[in-house]
Amino acid sequence: MSMLVHWFVLTGTEKEVPQVRREIVDKVRAWGVPLDEGTTDAIRLVASELIANAVVHGKGPITVGLRYRPGRLAIDVLDGDPSVPRTGRVRADDESGRGLALVGLLAACCAWKPVGSGKRVWAEIELPMVVPVTRAAVPCGLSAKWAEQQVVTKPKAPALAVA
To answer: Which domains does the chain have, with CATH numbers?
Structure first.
């Protein structure tokens, strides 16, 4: 299977984050990827954190890309601010500053690089592999009708002739 790709372009407002998070999961499902609850939650959280960081710390517009290949989903976020993404030192009572650390825990890999006058931040999430299901050799359609009409006769026991 080749790679599947989809792009979203955002203006860079906080109200867009929940909607795009839902659209990302919907798009992955539309590609036929089976998602369990844990994987769905990981995709939502990683997407939310990457997009929210671009909205809060970057400059709009923001481009979000999805790249799917069997077993992996990459979420790319591009914004117009070249600042290095940083994981902060947080105290127990801080309400923010843990996003990139969470992304690092949930993603198989994550990184960033400068792009033009901004940056690209991405994370790859491992996905369940689809195991092909083989069909049993069961008659169907006309073959099933034909099989129903067949009369199976048992061979007769040999008769003994007594003279």
So the answer is: 4-126 (3.30.565.10)
